[in-house]
Amino acid sequence: MTPGRVLVTGVAGFIGFHLCRRLLAEGWTVTGLDNLNDYYDPALKRARLNQLEGHPAFTFLHRDIAQRAEMHAVFSGPHFDLVVNLAAQAGVRYSLDNPYSYADSNLTGFVHILEGCRQQGVKHLLFASSSSVYGANSRLPYSEHDPVDHPVSLYAATKRAAELMAHSYAQLYDIPSTGLRFFTVYGPWGRPDMAYFSFTRKILAGEPIPVFNHGRMQRDFTYIDDIVEAVVRLVDHPPQRQTQWPVDPASSAAPFRIYNIGNHQPVELLDFITILEECLGRKAQLELLPMQAGDVLATYAEVDDLARLVDFAPRTPLVRGLEQFVQWYRQYYGTQ
């Protein structure tokens, strides 16, 4: 797709910020939207925004996708060739105590995005989903073609619901829609609620780190640059309507597809902590705890479909990615 006008929601978030930098570098005119909520430190979100706002092709809108009138006004303005919806209430554990925020953003807010895309006839909608949708699935690696009918958190349930809503709009209104199931994204400018980020803070402060299920867990850690590369490659591949197509959880005859975006290399949590200790030059104090409600034992992305479509494979080894994160963390927070 020739660079044109793109709307990126969640622009002050971790992935949104990095994606916008890439799109601006490639010549897109970017409208970034975010409500700058306090789920985690808004100062970090504003610091990310400060990296974008000097660019002449970037416009920031302080809006909330859950507000119908605000979103109607956004889509009543200039036409967007591309929409990337990354705005969401994130976090599995937070959903145990704050369920309404997930309904507001991930369900109601996403309906507003879909309606805006219908109103404008957007050429391609890409939207963030999550590896959490796999829930109680026991088959590994997780495949987009397996059923995902047993979420184990409200967060996961809202992400799966968003996939189904996007499919219905693709079917009804011919909105080419691509769902992005992200797997444990990490890197510079990351989210403070993520384990690797809080582990780093606690290790440097000499505080114990909580290790759930006594460390018997695996995660498919995926570096932010690899995530952005995959998303950018998918921009040029809007799904097409098909007359004959095998219907499964990843695709249908409608212009709709879902892709895992992961590293395809799950890492044991205790091994991850060892690598982080080496990057920090500090030992961690482990607080071994039982399994947390809503969590899963392992995430592991099957990425064959993504590789076939856009010739993509992640390039960043975990050691190098954590080194880059630690370097940024020390600089941003002024720690040694």
Description:
The chain is an alpha/beta fold and about 325 residues long. The protein contains ten helices and 13 strands. It has helices at about 15-25, 40-50, 70-75, 100-120, 155-175, 195-205, 225-235, 270-280, 305-310, 320-335, and strands at about 5-10, 30-35, 60, 80-85, 125-130, 175-180, 185, 210, 220, 220-225, 255-260, 265-270, 285-290. The strands form four sheets. It has a seven-stranded parallel sheet with strand order 3-2-1-4-5-6-11, with helices on both faces. It has a two-stranded parallel ribbon with strand order 7-10. Helix 3 (about 70-75) packs parallel to helix 4 (about 100-120). The model has no long low-confidence stretch (mean pLDDT about 95).
Question: What descriptors fit this protein?
Answer:
336 residues; alpha/beta; 7-stranded parallel sheet; two-stranded parallel ribbon; 39% helix; globular
**Tally of helical segments:** 10
Spell out the helices and strands N to C: EHEHEHEHEHEEHEEEHEEHEHH
End-to-end CA span = 44 Å
Net shape: globular
Instruction: Please describe the biggest sheet, giving its number of strands, its sense, and whether it closes into a barrel.
Output: 7 strands, parallel
Arithmetic mean pLDDT: 94
Read across the widest sheet, the strand sequence of neighbours is: 3-2-1-4-5-6-11
User: How much beta, percentage-wise?
Assistant: 15-25%
Number of strands: 13
